[in-house]
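Fold it.
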Amino acid sequence: MNQKETYKMDRNLNITRHLCLLPGIFLIVSGILLLFFPDLSQALFDFPGKTISKEPIAHALGVRQLAIGLMIVALSVSRQTKALGFVMVIGAIVPMADFLIFQPVIGTVSAMRHFAPVPFIFGLGVYLLAKSRNK
């Protein structure tokens, strides 16, 4: 591999790692909302039923979101390409499961906001794994 190809591959990996910051930061923000502003998160995420602030699951979901988001950001910033790729591919299961769980409760159209990031997250992970293998 010549120097120009190496530079281009490193540049593409950097761009991909930076794109991974988007779902990471989103998860951190949504985790903070669930932990500290559960009523606002209920409106934003279209949770059905009674006030979510009285449900302990809101805090559990907040911790989950925050932890996964921090993992993604830490791996991205520390340039752990292969580990970040695995976290992104496996992490795509979470919004997919959220879609499958919420779809019967809030309807397919509303639940699509949970499914929408799956191709993006999964695609980033697959790309990172493929390129880390070549490097």
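The first helix runs from residue 3 to 36.
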